[in-house]
């Protein structure tokens, strides 16, 4: 892709407040052309909708869009300057171009990485992915048609052998027939292999696309909306594999082959007349049975799926909390829960297995009975001279084809589909969860986010909880240093997460610099806000990966300087792998204090405008605490805003305002000295009500 066009598309996306998928440039082909059709090639290679060429003189509301001039090249056209010239910009340059007939204007239709707007269902994601490959499936259907016609050829071959070759011993005809059938079979083989390979390749691409979509969607689920456990959610996502299983070549061919049953019945009618009644009765019976089976297993597959997800959730939880379980002799308790869930899964799976076993046997018997009835009926017809023995053999082979692979595979396919359908329902559940940044909300990209933070009539309740946080009005000005204190469970961390934009209150508004936080583009918000949670959890990778998570790599020198200011450099220096120190899955490999230092080093490197720290030094010794706080203070600019949740009295000297929370409400808010004095002069009961930390109670 031409670099200029890529940059201009990015600029256009920015003006339209659209976040492009992070890998969109990587997915574009290596086309470096800059001609008029380059934009079409680019969007086609990305799988986006075709850009819309604007005919004639563009209307004012059609701007901004891309424009190509044969002399000046590509630009983003912003708006008319006069009636005959328009403003353009691109790569930091601005210009005014005269309008002329040889300019080409294009409106680019950006895809939404999370395809918002309409309500999504999991099945529509797969359907859209299949529909994008219409051509391939049309080719597949043609191959299926040819393949089925060739199948008829083999049955007609048998008819010719019985009716012509054997009675007359004409072996020259036999040789010609055998050669002809061999050629047909080889063509069939080639068609089947090509069809299977093509479908599997596309199925893999669909798998990549849909997995990417669901992974991104699961990541963007708002933190406060994740009421289910990590293991359960992971297991729900694994349902994708079941849907993928149904989309395999064999099941798709089964569906493709089903309509050809009608063709086969027609051929039987042509060869054996009334004999066609036999498959005409047996085939609908088989389909009816399949339908009853699908209906019968529906509830059981849904329930088995839910219990299976919970079982996986328990497995993840027990492995993750092994330390607590072992130390507290919780092994038996966990085993008991595991066995109960296992029993539940078996109880739900048993009806599915029972239906499957019974229906498979019925299908086999039906198949054999159809064969017997056909031959018996055919014997009358042959004896009566209404059809030849060869035609009867051909009819038997064709009926076998309808009843055989087609019908024999149906029960298995229906069970597979039953589980896939339950997985789709579970995936719908994930799609219905609220996202960090729903596609239908604006994606504002202000120049700056430095400004007042305002909470107005905010109410936040955790799912299932009766009470939560209630803040009538709270304002934090740029440059303020605020401490948040309160008793255990008083809502300090919740408040900080709301201010960080990680939780969205059910009522009221949270604004930053006058803009509703939910409407600000997520990347800008994350750049501006540095949030250190109470427990900084590391991810699998190296120490460097964890320090730089989501940040551009500033180089080892800058990184090591930041580590020196926090004290993390001691760990780096001591370990033979240094910055490449491996962090195992689940963030194991560092002590609690070292994890906090990693988070603080990352925070210093990200250089945020708004610092939100949740008990930043609770894991640190006194010396490290001093070093870290000095580093943060040195890094903060005058207009940096600083909000720190703490239980430590000594840290309040760093802030000039203190907010006291109790029971999810602000009970005291004012300058540090004043608040401390108020707390110290109040009675103990009042202090408890106010929710002040133990240190202050002691002082009182
Ligand atoms: N994920 C959650 N789901 C449900 N309830 C929660 C969740 N997290 C916290 N709570 C509840 O919300 C209330 C406030 O919790 P929060 O973590 O904000 O308190 P805190 O003041 O930071 O406490 P601490 O000083 O112990 O860190 C508590 O009663 C807690 O039980």
Explain how this protein is built.
One of its GO terms (cellular component) is plasma membrane. Residues 138-406 form the ABC transmembrane type-1 domain. It is found in: Cell membrane. With 700 residues, the chain is of the alpha+beta class. It has three domains: 3-107, Cathepsin B, Chain A (Alpha-Beta Complex), CATH 3.90.70; 122-432, ABC transporter transmembrane region fold; 453-699, 3-Layer(aba) Sandwich (Rossmann fold), CATH 3.40.50.300. 56% of the residues lie in helices and 13% in strands. It has 23 helices and 18 strands. Strands 1-6-2-3-4-5 form a six-stranded antiparallel beta sheet. Strands 12-15-16-9-17-18 form a six-stranded mixed beta sheet, with helices on both faces. A four-stranded antiparallel beta sheet has the order 8-7-10-11, with helices on one face. Helix 9 packs antiparallel against helix 13, helix 10 (277-320) packs parallel to helix 13 and helix 12 (331-383) runs antiparallel to helix 13 (389-432). The two termini are 69 Å apart. Residues 694-700 have low confidence and may be disordered. The site of adenosine-5'-triphosphate has 11 residues, from helix 14.
What is the CATH domain class of the largest domain?
Answer: Mainly Alpha
Largest sheet: 6 strands, antiparallel
CATH topology of the largest domain: ABC transporter transmembrane region fold
- The overall pLDDT, averaged over residues, is 83
- The number of strands is 18
Number of helices: 23
Widest β-sheet, arrangement of strands = 1-6-2-3-4-5
Radius of gyration: 35 Å
- Low-confidence stretches at least 5 residues in length (pLDDT < 50)? 694-700
What form results from the Cα inertia axes?
Answer: globular
What CATH architecture of the largest domain do you see?
A: Up-down Bundle
Bound molecules: adenosine-5'-triphosphate
- In terms of structural class, how would the helical and strand content be classed? alpha+beta
Question: What is the total number of structural domains?
Answer: 3
Helix content: 55-70%
Q: What distance separates the N and C termini?
A: 69 Å
Q: Which strand-content bin applies to the residues?
A: 5-15%
Main location: membrane
Subcellular location: Cell membrane
GO molecular function: ABC-type oligopeptide transporter activity; ATP binding; ATP hydrolysis activity
Domain ABC transmembrane type-1: 138-406
């Amino acid at each position: 892709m031409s670099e200029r066009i890529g940059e201009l598309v990015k600029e256009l996306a920015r003006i339209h407040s659209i976040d492009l998928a992070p890998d969109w440039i990587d997915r574009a082909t290596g086309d470096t052309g800059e001609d008029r059709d380059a934009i079409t090639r680019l969007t086609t290679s990305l799988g986006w909708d075709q850009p819309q060429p604007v005919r004639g003189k563009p209307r004012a509301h059609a701007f901004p869009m891309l424009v190509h001039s044969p002399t000046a090249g590509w630009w983003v056209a912003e708006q008319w300057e006069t009636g005959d010239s328009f403003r353009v910009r691109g790569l930091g340059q601005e210009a005014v171009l005269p309008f002329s007939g040889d300019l080409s204007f294009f409106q680019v239709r950006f895809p939404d990485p999370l395809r918002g707007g309409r309500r999504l269902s999991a099945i529509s994601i797969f359907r859209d992915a299949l529909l994008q490959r219409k051509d391939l499936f049309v080719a597949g259907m043609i191959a299926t048609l040819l393949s089925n016609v060739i199948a008829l050829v083999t049955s007609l071959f048998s008819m010719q052998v019985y009716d012509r070759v054997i009675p007359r011993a004409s072996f020259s005809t036999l040789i010609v027939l055998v050669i002809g059938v061999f050629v047909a079979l080889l063509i069939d083989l080639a068609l089947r292999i090509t069809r299977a390979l093509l479908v599997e390749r596309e199925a893999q691409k669909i798998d990549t696309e849909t997995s990417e979509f669901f992974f991104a969607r699961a990541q963007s689920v708002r933190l406060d909306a994740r009421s289910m456990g990590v293991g359960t959610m992971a297991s729900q996502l694994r349902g994708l594999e079941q849907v993928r299983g149904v989309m395999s070549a064999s099941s798709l061919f089964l569906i493709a082959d089903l309509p050809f049953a009608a063709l086969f019945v027609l051929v039987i009618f042509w060869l054996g007349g009334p004999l066609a009644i036999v498959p005409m009765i047996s085939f609908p019976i088989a389909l009816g049975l399949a339908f009853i089976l699908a209906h019968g297993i529906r509830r059981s597959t849904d329930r088995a799926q839910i219990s299976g997800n919970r079982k996986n959730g328990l497995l993840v939880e027990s492995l993750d909390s092994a330390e607590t379980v072992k130390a507290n002799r919780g092994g038996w308790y966990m085993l008991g829960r595991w066995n109960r869930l296992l029993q539940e899964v078996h109880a739900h799976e048993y009806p599915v297995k029972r239906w499957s076993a019974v229906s498979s046997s019925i299908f086999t018997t039906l198949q054999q009975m159809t064969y017997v009835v056909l031959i018996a009926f055919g014997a009358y017809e042959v004896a009566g001279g209404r059809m030849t023995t060869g035609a009867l053999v051909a009819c038997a082979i064709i009926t076998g084809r309808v009843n055989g692979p087609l019908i024999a595979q149906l029960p298995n396919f229906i069970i597979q589909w039953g589980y896939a359908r339950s997985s789709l329902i579970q995936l719908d559940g994930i799609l219905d969860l609220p996202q960090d940044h729903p596609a239908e909300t604006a994606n504002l990209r202000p120049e700056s986010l430095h400004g007042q933070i305002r909470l107005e009539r905010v109410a936040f309740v955790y799912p299932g909880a009766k009470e939560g946080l209630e803040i009538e009005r709270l304002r934090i000005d740029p440059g303020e240093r605020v401490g948040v204190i309160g008793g255990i469970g008083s809502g300090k961390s919740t408040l900080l997460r709301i201010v960080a934009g990680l939780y969205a209150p059910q009522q009221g508004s949270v604004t930053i610099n006058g803009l509703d936080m939910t409407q600000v583009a997520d990347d800008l918000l994350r750049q501006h806000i540095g949030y250190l949670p109470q427990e900084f959890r590391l991810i699998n990778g190296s120490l460097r990966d964890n320090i730089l998570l989501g940040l551009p790599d500033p180089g080892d020198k800058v990184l090591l300087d930041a580590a020196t200011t926090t004290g993390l450099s001691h760990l780096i220096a001591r370990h033979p792998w240094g910055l490449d120190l491996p962090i195992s899955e689940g963030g194991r490999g560092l002590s609690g204090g070292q994890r906090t230092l990693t988070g603080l080093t990352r925070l210093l490197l990200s250089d945020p405008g708004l610092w939100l720290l949740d008990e930043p030094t609770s894991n640190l010794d006194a010396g490290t605490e001093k070093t870290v706080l000095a580093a943060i203070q040195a890094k903060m600019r005058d207009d940096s805003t600083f909000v720190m949740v703490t239980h430590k009295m000594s840290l309040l000297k760093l802030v000039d305002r203190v907010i006291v929370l109790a029971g999810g409400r602000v009970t005291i808010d004012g300058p540090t000295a004043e608040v401390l004095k108020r707390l110290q002069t109040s009675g103990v009961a009042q202090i408890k009500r106010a929710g002040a930390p133990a240190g202050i109670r002691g002082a009182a």
